[in-house]
Design goal:
The chain has helices at residues 23-35, 65-74, 79-82, 84-92, 94-121, 129-136, 139-168, 177-193, 196-225, 238-241, 253-272, 275-281, 289-318, 324-329, 339-347, 352-384, 402-411, 420-446, 450-454, and strands at residues 2-4, 10-12, 15-16, 19-20, 42-45, 50-53. The chain is mostly helical and 463 residues long.
Length: 463
């Protein structure tokens, strides 16, 4: 007796890929096969793994390789790194913040590796973390995780736009911030309402600008610490000695240092928040997804190391944790809270602070644009799996889930998200369980893992 595996090949019930399968393994395989169900009401093209809804239209594969690579490298780098890192530095000290970012980077790298494998294995329209949870874990968990993701993505849009409007107030404070938020919201709506290629092209240039700016800031930090500042002061790691690498939080002593380190995890989590998921959500609209998605996921490592870890190290070098400007700006969302701007002002370099503020504005605008895309595609995925009303499955002739995009703009009237890091951790647990179950199902069905089935140089982090 034979049965069809996840890869579309026919395998024997007693032997798969030359391996004997015992009765207990058969039972485990049948359980995983029961979880690994396809999206309802779709036709599956096995060659392209493209799911085509019958009555509602479908998303189009219009994102090119360069779009996906830049989205992965700089898509959601926003105010978490440029603004939130200042409060973390003032509350915990440079060493605590650096350790928090390094540990969080390790976690995120594992997450993007697991998610990259699952997405490369099934790069279908509607692919998302909730879809993989529904396929490999349980529909009820997928329902909770999916709406959790949608809410978090949608509510982060006004958070980033508010920060962008306040950055504009650095130059023009006579105009109400609501005006700037409305202007940015209209532009983002236009970028997302026509075709996904327009969104990809905008993110390509947005992300490219952010990458160039961060590389420039890292080089500037190296030059300033070596004495290339107007005062010719080679200060090096002076601020790590005075006022010191740690700042106690709530209580004094070693316990206070540990609490400061632990508290900085919140800021680190917000800086990294939802970066890997953007790559997954774009898979269903990417040309040659099984080639481009693994490439983008692997390059996510460079984003983690060069932009976050080295970026937070540069902040600890430029600004002392007890700087009056930093302490006064802590808790604010204005451009004055950016440690990069404070460091440039302390070095006495003219004009450059305005350039950095422009980069922060672009970053906030770009992140909001990315979150609109992520929220709309998450809702689209929920509709395909039956966890959202079916009219959200409707796509225009150009492949845009129009009602999903409109719903995001309705949801942006909510309040700012303050528990985002907790929500991220809750959803990531379901994603990691999905990867483990999916890997076991692929081995039992196909004789090898998800990555080995789809890519030549697959991710093999767990083996």
């Amino acid at each position: 007796m034979t049965e069809k595996g996840l890869s579309g090949t026919t395998t024997s019930g007693s032997q798969r890929n030359g391996r004997q399968v015992g009765s207990s393994e058969k039972i485990k395989s049948s359980n995983l096969q029961g979880r690994a169900k396809a999206i309802p009401d779709v036709d599956m093209d096995e060659e392209t793994t493209q799911a085509i809804p019958r009555d509602y239209g479908c998303t189009k594969r219009q994102l090119k390789s360069r779009h996906v690579q830049l989205i992965a490298l700089g898509g959601t780098i926003g105010t978490g790194l440029f603004l939130g890192s200042g409060a973390a530095l003032a509350g915990a000290g440079p060493a605590s913040v650096l350790m928090a970012y390094v540990i969080m980077a390790t976690i995120v790298f594992c997450v993007v590796t697991a998610l990259g494998e699952m997405t490369s294995f099934l790069p279908i329209p509607g692919s998302s973390v909730p879809y993989f949870v529904d396929r490999y874990v349980d529909p009820s968990v997928a329902f909770a995780a999916g709406w959790n993701y949608y809410y978090a993505f949608a509510i982060l849009v006004p958070t980033e736009l508010t920060a962008g409007g306040l950055v504009i107030g650095y130059w023009i404070d006579s105009v109400n911030v609501r005006v700037w938020i409305t202007v940015m919201l209209i532009v983002i709506f236009a970028l997302n309402i026509f075709t996904v290629q327009i969104y990809g092209e905008a993110e390509f240039w947005f992300a490219g600008t952010k990458i160039i700016a961060i590389i420039g800031l890292l080089l500037m930090t190296l030059i300033l610490m070596c004495g290339g500042n107007p005062q010719h002061d080679a200060f090096g790691f002076r601020y790590w000695n005075n006022p010191g690498p740690f700042v106690p939080f709530l209580v004094g002593g070693s316990l206070g240092n540990f609490l400061g380190f632990w508290n900085s995890f919140v800021n680190a989590g917000f800086a990294y928040i939802f970066g890997p998921e953007i790559v997954c959500l774009s898979a269903g609209e990417t040309i040659s997804a099984r080639r481009n998605i693994p490439k983008a996921a692997r390059r996510f490592f460079y984003r983690i190391v060069f932009f976050y870890v080295l970026g937070i190290l540069a902040i600890g070098i430029l600004v002392p944790s007890n700087s009056p400007q930093l302490l006064n700006a802590a808790g604010q969302s204005t451009a004055a809270a950016s440690p990069f701007v404070i460091g440039i002002q302390m070095a006495g370099i003219p004009v450059l602070n305005h350039i950095i503020n422009a980069v922060i504005l672009i970053s906030a605008w770009s992140s909001a644009n990315g979150y609109v895309f992520a929220a709309s595609r998450t809702l689209y995925s929920l509709a395909l799996t039956g966890n959202a009303p079916p009219f959200f499955k409707y796509c225009t002739k150009r492949g845009v889930p129009i009602w999903c995009v409109c719903s995001v703009f309705r949801a942006t009237t909510g309040r700012r998200l303050r528990e985002g890091s907790w929500k991220e951790c809750t959803s990531l647990r379901g994603m990691c369980i999905s990867h483990q179950n999916g890997e076991q199902a692929a081995i039992l069905e196909c004789g090898n893992g998800m990555g080995e089935s789809c890519t030549k140089d697959a991710f093999r982090l767990y083996r």
